[in-house]
Amino acid sequence: MKEKSIxxxxxxxxxxxxxxxxxxxxxxxxxxxxxxxxxxxxxxxxTLREAVxxxxxxxxxxxxxxxxxxxxxxxxxxxxxxxxxxxxxxxKLTQDLFEVRFLIEPQMASLAAQYITEEEIEVLEKxxxxxxxxxxxxxxxxxxxxxxxxxxxxxxxRNVAIQQLIPIIIQSITLYNDFFTSEQSxxxxxxxxxxxxxxxxxxxxxxxxxxxxxxxxxNRRTLNYEKFI
Length: 229
Prior knowledge:
With 229 residues, this protein is mostly helical. The chain contains ten helices and two strands. The chain folds into two domains: 8-71, Arc Repressor Mutant, subunit A; 84-226, GntR ligand-binding domain-like (Four Helix Bundle (Hemerythrin (Met), subunit A)). Strand 1 (61-64) and strand 2 form a beta hairpin.
């Protein structure tokens, strides 16, 4: 399978982060309106819109209805903090990231089942429903919702070390999105997310761990299949 270079959306997201630094913007700063920022960065407005969505999914930006787009987190703006961009073989990187996720995410889900708040459960349920709807409608936002879903579980784990490893999850989901094409993989994803939410909501740590493990195993099988077609 042909390796893919950085996408236009990713490049634009990096330009937005460069803009933060150039303009010395801080947490709480409001970005210029879409037209002005697109002109400043010399990109199309539709591309800018997608880049903003990507940064929202990474908890860097927040879009406030009727108000504008604001910076909410600068700790995650170091571009490629783990050096994934230096890896040329994207298939190998995607496979290896899954191996790391197998070590982290089942326990992460187990901890979330023990420590999650009622408010966080409500957020997780909304993300699961939005993700299912987006997949069924064949929308383009499903991978961003998937990032938010897994990141929310990491936050609910109350484990600060796991939370610092969220970039691994983000990179893995972003790369896996290129292989997320089969109907079976979509069916498996919907089912798995339902099971994960159900287990966490029931505060069943063992079931949450097992549901996450099954989800990752399904995704890895899809990846291994795509590797050879």
